[in-house]
Specification:
This protein is mainly α. It has 23 helices and no strands. It has helices at about 5-25, 35-55, 65-85, 90-105, 115-130, 135-155, 165, 175-200, 205-220, 225-235, 245-265, 275-315, 320-325, 335, 345-350, 360-375, 385-405, 410-430, 435-465, 470-490, 500-520, 525-550, 560-585. The longest helix has about 40 residues, at about 275-315. It starts with a helix and ends with a helix. About 35% of the residues are buried. Residues about 315-335 have low confidence and may be disordered.
């Protein structure tokens, strides 16, 4: 018996009412009854389910009719599954999704059934992922992916049908709507596969799925511009490897392109002033996030370039050989497909995708990053978003630190570190340690390292001078004092050091080591001050050794420091005794 179109026409009206209840009317549901419209939609969908099940049970249905009724029923089961999950009746929702899959799995090659089948698999995979059933979610979503791929490899020639098409006659089928819906459904498959693979630790596979999702959203013009740009910028961070710089830059350029294009069309005539203000705030917020991703890209270029040059130096090949040895970064075959169909040259030519060798090249990267830092700081302000503002300042500090590595002139290198220290001092003075202790600790430690780096530059200059000036000697002591102050604030901020976690304890041990060295480097002609400085130096070297003995697991990378400290602990008492004797004899 052919399909009962009259009955389906009545069901279509009821189905449209259910969709309206879920998508429109539910927005007005009171807080005291948040699922009122969804429950009303549920009752309609259950009614439709009952009619379809009766139609399907008829003995005189032909094969085409069975396929139409089953496909429609699969859609209704999927809708019910989603609805029950939304109203937090998870078990019932899961069962409806499973029923839809079982009902349609033998029809996976049919254009009438593939959309509800893949859609149900998607929803089940999403549910499994949200319930922590990650391995099952991977299996379910990959099954959806395979059905889509197999269907496209063996097309039937018949048009794909949406649920509206199934309710209608063949003459009323909307051309192309089924294909578009299948493609959007497959995009959802890829999107959630990316999340699942990330959770399972399969980073490369997750990255590939993410890119495919973004590329498909562009192709089908099915995306929110701000969300798309933020996702592309976030994905760029997965490419921050020596081999992936070209693609990291490409994704950031695409994010910026989409944001710039959206800026000129984000306000609609029908929007109220409040809606426009909210849209502008969201735009500025997310553009600042894209800026911060650009900064991380620039930081990686400089840090990778520094590491690369230091590795070359270990090989004793010399600077002249380094220039010859820098090949273009290799890109994996899979990554070569990760290109968006956009003209991004105006963005990609603003910064290199290669390691830098010379100061001038590093400075270009630094200046590029600073433009994005300053733009990000227009949104992330110290007085309103202090934590995020602090992270931006820390990135700025890191940029200066890496830039200083490429500066050959000692005085200019010291000036860059001084600028770095000034930014950090301004930051820590803004923050109340009571509320921002973790950030303050990070800043104190970084300040200690920065002042110690400046001290080493000054000491190297002193070694080359027969008669150092009082100003130069005073500068050394000032840097020692600043380093001591910040390392002391760092370790004193841990009230119960013995109960500190290993990661933090390792930094505390390094702080002890640096404090011992800083006190040892202080210069004074006063014997009593010499004694005090060396006694403090011995104190911190002993704390370092004692801490290492208690936390042996932390000392694997500290052999050089441990050896130095043990030697100093052996020698310093003799030096202290010598100075004490001089004090007593004077």
């Amino acid at each position: 018996m052919p399909v009962d179109r009259e009955k389906l026409s009545c069901l279509k009206e009821r189905y449209d009412k259910a969709i309206q209840l879920m998508e429109e009317d539910s927005k007005s549901d009171p807080e005291s009854d948040p699922f009122r419209s969804h429950y009303a939609a549920r009752d309609i969908l259950l009614e439709i389910r009952g009619y379809l099940e009766k139609l399907l049970a008829r003995d005189d249905n032909d094969d085409e009719t069975v396929l139409i009724y089953k496909s429609l029923l699969g859609f209704i089961y999927k809708n019910l599954g989603q609805l029950y999950i939304f109203v937090e009746e998870i078990t019932t929702g899961r069962k409806y999704l499973q029923d839809s899959i079982v009902l349609l799995e033998d029809y996976h090659a049919n254009p009438e059934a593939i959309i509800p089948l893949v859609g149900s698999l998607n929803q089940l995979g999403i549910l499994q992922a949200n319930q922590g059933e990650t391995a099952d979610a991977k299996e379910t979503l990959q099954r959806a992916e395979k059905i889509y791929v197999d269907f496209n490899e063996s097309p039937s020639g018949e048009p794909l049908t949406t649920i509206n098409d199934l309710f209608a006659t063949k003459e009323e089928i909307q051309a192309g709507a089924g294909r578009l819906m299948l493609e959007k459904t497959h995009t959802i498959t890829l999107y959630y596969l990316a999340q699942v693979m990330c959770t399972l630790g399969e980073a490369d596979t997750s990255r590939n799925y993410c890119h495919s999702t973004l590329k498909r959203q562009l192709h089908f013009k099915d995306y929110d511009a701000i969300d798309w740009a933020l996702n592309a910028a976030t994905l760029s961070q997965c490419f921050l490897t020596p081999e992936g710089l070209t693609h990291a830059r490409h994704h950031l350029a695409a994010a910026t392109y989409i944001m710039d294009r959206f800026e000129g069309q984000m306000f609609k005539p029908e929007m109220s002033e409040d809606e426009k203000a909210a849209q502008l705030e969201t735009f500025q917020h997310r553009y600042a996030d894209v800026d911060r991703c650009w900064v991380k890209y620039a930081l990686f270029i400089l840090s990778h370039s520094k590491d690369r040059l230091m590795e070359e130096e270990k090989d004793d090949s010399g600077v002249a050989e380094i220039t010859k040895k820098v090949p273009p970064l290799s890109i994996s075959t899979a990554a070569e497909d990760m290109i968006f169909p956009l003209d991004l040259s105006i963005y990609e030519t603003k910064i290199t995708d290669q390691p830098v060798l010379m100061f001038e090249d590093a400075k270009e990267v630094y200046l590029f990053a600073m433009r994005h830092i300053n733009h990000a700081k227009e949104y992330y302000k110290a007085d309103s978003l202090a934590s995020e503002y602090a992270k931006i300042v820390m990135d700025m500090s890191s940029m200066l630190k890496y830039l200083a590595f490429f500066e050959e002139n000692e005085d200019d290198r010291c000036k860059l570190h001084k600028k770095q220290a000034d930014h950090l001092e301004d930051l820590v003075n803004l923050l109340n340690p009571t509320y921002y202790l973790v950030i303050c600790r990070e800043v104190w430690y970084e300040l200690g390292i920065t002042y110690m780096t400046m001290l080493d530059i000054k000491l190297d200059k002193l070694k080359a001078t027969d008669r150092p000036s009082p100003h130069a000697l005073n500068k050394v002591n000032t840097l020692c004092d600043k380093g001591i102050r910040n390392f002391s604030k760092f370790y004193e901020s841990f009230p119960k050091i013995d109960e500190t976690a290993d990661e933090e304890m390792q930094l505390i041990l390094y702080a002890y080591f640096h404090l011992g060295r800083l006190y040892y480097k202080k210069i004074t002609p006063d014997r009593r001050m010499q004694y005090t400085n060396l006694d403090n130096s011995l104190k911190y070297y002993n704390l370092f050794i004692s801490g290492c003995d208690k936390r042996d697991a932390l000392t694997k990378g500290m052999k050089g420091e441990i050896g130095c400290c043990r030697e100093m602990v052996r020698l310093l008492p003799m030096k202290l005794a010598q100075i004490n004797a001089q004090i007593n004899s004077s």
